[in-house]
Amino acid sequence: MNPPAVIQLDHVYAHPPSAVWKALTDPALHAKWWAAGDVRPIVGHRFTLDMGPWGQQPCEVLAVEPERLLQYRFATGTLDTTLTWRLVPEGTGTRLTLVHEGFNLDSPMGRRAFEGMKPGWPGVLTRLGTALEG
User: Fold this and answer.
1) Rg of the chain over CA atoms, in angstroms?
2) 60/26 Cα distance (integer angstroms)
3) Distance CA 129, CA 75 (A)
4) Burial level of 87, CB count in 10 A (0-12/13-18/19+)?
5) Pairing of strands 5-13, 36-37
6) pLDDT tens-digit series, residues 75-129
7) Tell me, what CATH number does 81's domain have?
C-alpha cells in the first residue's frame, strides 16, 4: 500500500498578499487562471470547479485565514484530495505555497490524477501570475 501522494510548489509573485488572495477567492479572477466556480473564503462553503473535460468537481472550504490560508477539499466523493494555499509576505510580494495532497496511488484514478496534476500545477501557477499582471 502506497502512502498518499503530495504535490507541493512554491511561487513568488511581485504582488502583495491582498492581490494574490483576491485571485484565489474571487470567482471571476479564479476563472481567468484556473477554473470557473463559485469559490468563496467561507469555511463550509460548497462549490464546484469546472474542470473542462474532467467535469464539475465538487469542493468544500475547510479552513480560511484571510490573506494567509485557504484550504478546500477537492473532488469530494471521487478523488477526495485537499488543496492548501498558504500566502506569506516576501518583500513587496507574496510567496504562495500550494500543497495538493491525499492522492490514493493504489487506485487507478488517484494515480492518473497525480500523474496528470503534478506536471500541470506549475503551468497553473504561471497563469495565476499572468492574471495578477492583467
Assistant:
1) 14
2) 15
3) 24
4) buried
5) unpaired
6) 988 899 999 999 999 999 999 999 999 999 999 989 999 999 999 999 999 999 9
7) 3.30.530.20
Residue 84 β-bridge partners: 71, 99
As given in the structure block, the three cell numbers for residue 35 are: 477554473
54-63: pLDDT as tens digits: 889 999 999 9
Q: Beta-carbon neighbour count of residue 101 at 10 Å? A: 14
Largest CA distance in the chain: 45
User: What would the DSSP string read from start to end of 74-92?
Assistant: ESTTTT-EEEEEEEEEETT
The model's pTM is 0.94
Chain center to CA of 50: 13
> Would you state the cell numbers that stand for residue 128, as one nine-digit string?
495565476
If one counts the domains in the chain, the total is: 1
Bridge partners (DSSP) of residue 104 are none
Cell of 43: 469555511
Choice between 14 and 76, residue whose per-residue pLDDT is larger: 14
Which residue type sits at 109? M
What is the residue range of 124's domain? Answer: 5-133
